[in-house]
Design goal:
single chain, six-stranded mixed β-sheet, elongated
């Protein structure tokens, strides 16, 4: 499909995102806390001259406010409009601060426990402080590198109840949480497209969070996605980040690129006279910006009876409701798999217990992808790799 248009200077987003000034301020304060911990418990106790501590402290505070600088650059904390190298460095510095704060708290707790056992004061060695700082810096570097790589293909076989024989061995490739941005650019998107197109998929689906930024900001970087090809088409639903920008403009643009959008709608895939239903719903965040929320009843209206249903739902939180409606397979994303091993338990609590991989929910299989990309405001992966997921459907024994 032909694609045209001129790339213009990046405009600043209007301040119409679903966040109040108070919420944005809280957001900035929360991310300043790790920097304050590092300043008070790591930097200040070190035997360094004041002229060295002051600029170091200022740099740490500046790194902690990455999202404030992002908002000033574009009008949104979700779209840092800096050169890619600057965005990478911000993610590394921000991640190193968070990790150092966690490590310092762990050291402090260990020191406190030691003092309680020994009943005497102890001083944390300076060498230990330098060591945890080095560890945090290295881990942050590894985390950013893991986040930026083109994901490998992950194969998952799913048994589907009453799967028609024509669909035995049917392959569905899922992309999700691409977050096309100044961090995940056209070159990265092209590599993802090439890998997906070479997968032998019968069907490709994208389960939301295509972008971070307006259509004008992302027009060039998202363009490679129009090359996605599969015999039975390329379908998609919106994620919460599409609603953070101009939702209507993005739906028009994505539809124009060849994506068959399924916002509270379904499509019927036919093979040899047998049918499979592919349904999609809007995101849970849609009502916050005056758009229709997810409506599975509407999505399934007039769907053929007795045909297995695959549901695309960006967030996994309502999986139990989908299972109760007889959905065979739900594909979701949103959680990024928790991003960092250990953090996944916290992320799971915010998503009805679902965070990464396969779950059996009643008679339904739920699969929550770790994500293909990552939000450019916190792009670290440690122990939670990104993925392009290829599902092979098999009849349930």
């Amino acid at each position: 499909m032909a694609y045209g248009g001129h790339v213009r200077c990046v405009p600043r987003l209007p301040a119409t995102l679903p966040a109040t000034a108070g919420a944005r301020s809280i957001f900035n304060v929360v991310f300043a806390v790790p920097a304050l911990i590092v300043l008070a418990r790591w930097l200040w106790p070190l035997p360094l001259p004041l002229w060295a501590k002051i600029p170091a402290g200022i740099l740490m505070l500046a790194a902690s406010q990455f999202h404030l600088w992002s908002r000033l650059s574009s009008g949104s904390v979700f779209a840092p409009e800096f050169p890619r190298l600057v965005v990478i460095l911000f993610n590394w510095a921000f991640g190193a601060l968070l990790l150092l704060a966690v490590l310092q708290v762990m050291v402090d707790l260990a020191a406190l426990l030691t003092m309680l056992v020994r009943r005497e004061a102890i001083r944390e060695p300076d060498a230990l402080r330098y060591a945890i700082a080095g560890l945090a810096a290295v881990l942050a570097g590894i985390g950013v590198a893991n986040a930026l790589r083109v994901p490998p293909m992950k194969d998952v076989t799913v048994a589907i109840r009453d799967l028609p024989p024509s669909f035995d061995g049917y392959r569905v490739v899922q992309l999700t949480d691409l977050h096309i941005s100044r961090l995940f650019t056209a070159d990265w998107a092209q590599a993802v497209v090439d890998r997906s197109n070479a997968s032998g998929a019968d069907l490709i689906v994208v389960t939301g969070d295509f972008i971070d930024g307006s259509v004008e900001m992302r027009r060039r970087d998202i363009a490679p996605l129009q090359q996605l090809r599969a015999p039975d088409g390329v379908y998609a639903i919106p994620g919460n980040h599409e609603y953070f920008f101009d939702y209507a403009a993005w739906i028009r643009h994505l539809s124009g690129m060849g994506f068959r959008m399924l916002p509270n709608a379904h499509a019927v895939i036919e093979r040899g006279g047998e049918r499979l239903v592919l349904a999609g719903v809007t995101d849970l965040s849609a009502p916050s910006v005056g758009k229709p929320g997810p409506d599975l009843s509407l999505a399934l209206r007039s769907a053929p009876a007795n045909a297995p249903i695959i549901l695309l739902d960006h967030q996994p939180a309502k999986a139990r409701d989908a299972a109760a409606r007889g959905i065979a397979l739900q594909l979701s994303g949103h959680t990024h798999g928790g991003m960092i091993a250990g953090l996944d338990r916290i992320v799971a609590r915010a998503n009805a217990g679902f965070v990464s991989g396969r779950y059996k929910v009643g008679g339904m299989t739920l699969y929550v992808s770790n994500g293909t990309g990552l939000w450019p405001g916190f792009a670290l992966r440690l122990g939670v790799p990104p993925e392009i997921t290829r599902f092979t459907l098999r009849p349930m024994a």
